[in-house]
Design goal:
- Keywords: Lyase, Schiff base.
- By secondary structure, the protein is an alpha/beta fold.
- It has a single domain, classed as TIM Barrel, CATH 3.20.20.
- Helices cover 47% and strands 10% of the residues.
- It has 13 helices and eight strands.
- Helix 3 runs antiparallel to helix 13.
- The chain is globular and about 55 Å long.
- The chain starts with 16 loop residues before the first helix and ends in a 12-residue tail after the last helix.
């Protein structure tokens, strides 16, 4: 994982229940700040094009369907390696553009590895994704098998009942075990925020997972009724900022589920820049979990280059 080599991985700092229990979130203030970020006038022209290229670099290009096949995953990986048409790449003057990673189920790691051949990280969803309701022994073995198969990042799902019942010790112990099972592979903790009921629960779960050594915190599986939102993202990135101030460890952030337009990608980039700064605008600290987002970004960049929009069906689907 060369892109991570210059950064110190998050280490388990120990569960501080005193800190966790004192966390409060002002919902009205969070909503107002989120609305101000989401409604801000967007960048235009060449500045927008540059931001959209940055968004491409931070995409975890994803396929998590029950009908996935090796052929579909191979096409996804080829699109990840060449996310824009060559004429657009030439017009924009960008070299070596790729997505941040690909994200697949365990069974699709092998076909992904054959195409990528180490050129991009492979993220595998794990721990009984998306519900997470298998035995801990089964979930740990699943992680170990995915790492052995070639996954360099593991997207785990937490047990939501630990959050909903306030059992922070159980959540910490679970996350610590996942972190250990991942070994050298980086671990993203999926909080399934749409299931957690309150922003306060989101903040506390974020902190507990980071205290247990998660390298990223991620909003959603994409399978919940409500997935990534700006208010949830605001709470999570502020937890990341405070964790960094307390410990010195830089934890990444990944919104996932429902981020399907160039406009929404720009909103999340804005949140990262304003709340965490430019250091967090790189793929080792920011990812967007998405499948159809790349198509809309490519259409917007084609409009920038040619002055015309094309139909989405004219663009290769990942």
């Amino acid at each position: 994982m060369t892109q991570h080599s210059a950064f110190k991985r998050n280490e388990a700092t120990g569960l501080d229940l005193g800190w966790v229990n004192q966390i409060k979130v002002n919902r009205n203030a969070a909503d107002r700040r989120a609305a101000s970020l989401a409604n801000r006038r967007t960048v235009k022209k060449e500045y927008q094009a540059a931001w959209l290229v940055k968004a491409i670099q931070c995409i975890d290009l994803t396929t998590l369907g029950g009908d996935d096949t090796p052929g579909r995953v191979e096409r996804l990986c080829m699109k990840a390696l060449r996310p824009l048409r060559s004429d657009l790449v030439e017009a924009l003057g960008v070299q070596g553009l790729t997505t941040g990673a690909v994200c697949v189920y365990h069974e699709m790691i092998a076909p992904a590895a054959r195409v990528l051949n180490g050129r991009l990280p492979i993220a595998a969803v794990s721990t009984a994704f998306p519900a997470g309701l298998s035995s801990l022994e089964t979930k740990l073995r699943e992680i170990e098998l995915s790492v052995a198969a070639g996954a360099t990042e593991i997207d785990i799902v937490i047990t939501r009942q630990h959050v909903l019942t306030g059992n922070w010790q159980a959540l910490y112990d679970e996350m610590l075990a996942y972190r250990k099972a991942c070994g050298e592979a980086h671990v993203k903790a999926i909080l399934a925020t749409g299931d957690l009921m309150t922003l306060e629960n989101v903040a506390k779960a974020s902190w507990v997972c980071m205290m247990a050594g998660s390298d990223f915190i991620k909003t959603s599986t994409g399978k919940e009724g409500v997935n990534a939102t700006i208010p949830v993202s605001l709470v999570m990135v502020r937890a990341i900022r405070e964790y960094y101030e307390q410990t010195g460890f830089m934890v990444g952030y990944k919104p996932a589920g429902g981020v399907s337009t160039a406009k929404s990608a720009l909103q999340y980039l804005t949140v990262m820049k304003e709340e965490l700064g430019n250091e967090w605008l790189e793929p080792h600290l920011f990812r967007i979990g998405a499948s159809s987002l790349l198509t809309d970004i490519e259409r917007q960049l084609e409009h920038y280059v040619t002055g015309n929009y094309s139909a989405s069906h004219r663009h290769a689907q990942p």
